[in-house]
Input
Amino acid sequence: MERNSPTVLVGRKVVPGKEAEFAEWMTRVTHAAQGAPGHVAVDVQRPDSAHPDEWMVVYRFEDADSLGAWLVSDERLQLIEEGADLILGEPRVQVFAATAGEPGVRMVTSYLLREDGRTVHRTVHEEVLRELEKYEGFREREILEAVPGVQPETVVILTFDDEVSLRAWLDSDVRGQLLSRLDPHIDGTYATSVLGGFAGWFS
Output
């Protein structure tokens, strides 16, 4: 798969009543990111029907070193400390590389996979891919395996031409049947975000 610049997706839930303060704080964070070495683009999505209780922020950098330097920079860590009282729980963070190509609709799903479920997970997702290839508008699937100490969640990224194509897959009986086989091997719940294609955001 052809890859583009490394990207981090951050989802945050805001303390009720603190939305205006959070928006102001988020503006400061994005301005700081824009001034960081290697910054390519940043996109902020307010809560909507796809992610009704989360603010989604996507950062893109030229290379992994630049992204890593921003994530651990004193300026960013100071801002994170200042905004801690505005955020519910821990942020949901996923790091991956954006896929080159035309804009599309991307569904990012993350979950904690139990140790005894890895073989079943691989088997089921190969069946998922075979089924997806039958759907008009499906582009590609990417699985980012959990990395102990770095990214505890398994992340699955599905890209479609448009929302209609994605909806056809989400509403299909075969998808429900396949996921029901995975459920006993998932620790907790799925976290899913439906987002526009990253290529469109960062043009």
About this structure: The chain is about 35% helix and 35% strand.
